[in-house]
Amino acid sequence: MLRKLLVVALVLGMASSVFAQGNITAGNAWFRFTTIPTSSTSTTGTSSAHFSASASASGDQMFGTWWWFRLPGATRESSFSSAAGQGFSQTYVGDIATLSWTNVAGAGLMSATLRYDIDDMDGAGTTMARVTATMVVTNLSTVAPLAVSLFNYADYDVLGTASGDSAVLLATNRMGISEGAISTEFFGPNANAWEVDPWSTTAAGAVRVRMVDALVDNLDNTGLPQGPFDFTGAYQWNLNLAPGGSATVYGGLSINTSAIPEPTTMALLALGGLVAIRRRR
Ligand SMILES: [Ca+2]
Ligand SMILES: [Ca+2]
Ligand SMILES: [Ca+2]
Description:
With 281 residues, the chain is mainly beta. The protein has three helices and 17 strands. 14% of the residues lie in helices and 42% in strands.
């Protein structure tokens, strides 16, 4: 019941702020961050997004998706956030969202740029859409390496309902989540680990809890296949950044089509990462 009330509140929020920040569109494909976390310990990233192939909240398949990180010596995972003191900025223009942090968590260790690119995969059709997230993190030190873990979390609610979803591992780091005529995907290429659990705010070990609690967690490659249930899942990348170096990771989301970007897109995205490295140096 609490969750239903939250959904109603989000829908009301959309109705009153149709042109607010946070939408990207391409044809009938539509993705929206309703809100992003305002602090590193916020839980709002878990209920932050909507994703539809039919141009609006109608046909919404997603409850939330967001990114967390763990820096050396940290005692928990932290949310990327809009908190002050990080040089944070965000733009949403056409089919591209760009969020950037010149100093993640004000720790003086890492900068980050997160880009979301949406594609309409079926022209006038209203059933297929794809979003590719590209996260580039850069070591701010020119003398010391930096070990950082990144986490990308997704909470699909296929058919717009929390219940009834079934999930399988389609291939390495590529989850399929479906109900009825809708098949979605969550892709985390080159991830070191993944995990799927039923949605929960309290169950120890549930992936949603692992992102936001005050404990260090590493994903354990469990939970697939599973269903019918209320799907939540995440990927983890363990990165070792050279002094002044960058790493790029991708997160793919799709409705009724593959979440794997075209090779040309992947190449362009990789090139974008290289450009970022050159600028940094
Ligand atoms: Ca469902
Ligand atoms: Ca945790
Ligand atoms: Ca779900």
